[in-house]
Structures are given as structure tokens and as C-alpha cells.
Amino acid sequence: MKNQALTYIGQAKKGMFLPLPLYAFRIPAGFPSPAEDYMEGTLDLNEELVDCAEATFFMRVSGDSMVGAGIMPGGMLVVDRSLEARHGQIVIAVLDGQLTVKRLYDRGGKIQLRAENPKYQPIKISREQDLQIWGVVTNVITKLD
Known about the structure:
Blueprint: E1 4-11, E2 20-23, E3 39-43, H1 45-49, E4 56-63, E5 76-80, E6 90-95, E7 98-107, E8 110-114, E9 123-124, E10 131-141
Antiparallel strand pairs: 1-4, 2-3, 4-5, 5-10, 6-7, 6-10, 7-8, 8-9
């Protein structure tokens, strides 16, 4: 499990607002278009990314085990602890006391934590291991180089 490390950044807080410009159209990936005339208002990223502020936390990722899911080293995860984890979701798991981010596989009594990088094998969970799901990843924020 040394392939992924998480750094706690903080908890979401109600009342924090940083107004950002919001444009009223979708960005075409083709021919450039002037956008100044399409300003719709402001955007609060808390409203877009956080459903339950009391249970939402931010974590930074190191390692490359989840790159196939768009979770890059240095990326930030928005994690909601109020959600119940389901098969196929990306979760923050505590396995034998260590935090990791992986996709949860839970079918037919078989539980695994799966990476999204072919370099890493699934982590098969045995009855002797202590697995706790700490939270469900709801969003990923990645800085583009």
C-alpha cells in the first residue's frame, strides 16, 4: 500500500464564499469565441462540490495508483464521510491502520480495493484484515501543468 499516500488538507466550512465568474455557455473545444458578453454571475465552488459541509474533507494525493480514474499525484480529493460506500465507488479506505484511495469492489462476499493503474494488483481483503471505509470521493481537483 505504499503506492498511494494522502495528506489531510481540511474540512469544508459553511459560510466560506469566494465568488468566481460564471459564464452562461459551454466552452467549445474548437474555434475560439469571445466570452466577455456571456457573463452570467458568480459561482461558489462550495455549492458545486460540497453536499454536506459537516462531513466533507479535502485530501491531497501522492502516488499514481489511481491515474486511470483521473486522480493524479498532487490532486485534491473532495471526500464525503456521510455517504455509504457502494460497489464501484472510489473510497478512502483504512486498511490495517493505513489510509489509501482505491475503487471499492464488493460482490458476492468478495471485497477488494482496486487501483486504476495496471502497475498495481487489486488488494484482496481477508477476514483477518481490518478494513474501514473512511469516506467516499465525490470530486477530484487536479491542477493542469
